[in-house]
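Hi all, long-time lurker, first post. I run a small reading group and we've been trying to get comfortable going from sequence to structure in the token notation. Rather than ask abstract questions, I figured I'd post a concrete chain and ask someone more experienced to write out its structure so we can walk through it together at our next meeting. Sequence below, copied exactly:
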Amino acid sequence: MLGNAAPYPQPDRPCSGYLLRAGAASVWVDAGPGSLAELLRHTSLSSLDAVWLSHLHLDHIGDLLNAYYALAYGELPAREVPLPVYAPAGLADRLTGFFGSGFTNDVLELRPLSDGHQFELGDLTLLSRSVDHGGPEAYALRASSPGHALVYSGDCTPCPALDALAHDADLLLCEANDPVANPFHHTPQQAADLARRSGTRQLVLTHVGPLLTPAAAVAQAVFDGPTTHAEIGTTFTF
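-- Answer (accepted) --
Happy to help. Here is the structure in token form:
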């Protein structure tokens, strides 16, 4: 767990970011502000196989800009090939708007997501499904290796696509926000209901907004399996 805050970073709490590892594969899932520094505690950008971004809100992509600078201007050891970034297609325009004519694809290789998009890294399979986040193109993720599966909601409201994606997952990583702050997220109890419907074995709440505390979010998520918060630095292994 690299970051869990929403919609802005707080002291000792970067925004959404997660390091996913399976076998030899390593993927940075969401790149919220502050998550790059946490990522670098565990690995280097040159060691990553890919970046996967759920949607283009700043609290999920902000540190991709810093990663670009690190790769372009000094991170050692340098990557031999551009870093693949799987994200909604609008990311190219966002980066060009920020960097202007200085943005090039020789640092980041942008690969657009779509509903049902699937790719493999060794024994790791990543499947993306389109979900409803109130307008922007948004995706949830199912990451699976033989006999194991993790599902990440990204940010969204309850929807059939996420129910299907989360079926029989070992771990569900789901945002838990106050509906007053943003109606286009799961509430803690909706996250717990999803875990129950899908047969998930463990629920981890993340992206807890400023109107809730992580402890309150966990207390509200009534689920018959283990439920916890995505504390920074915690590793879940299965």
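A couple of things your group might point at:
The longest strand covers residues 25-31.
The mean pLDDT is 94.
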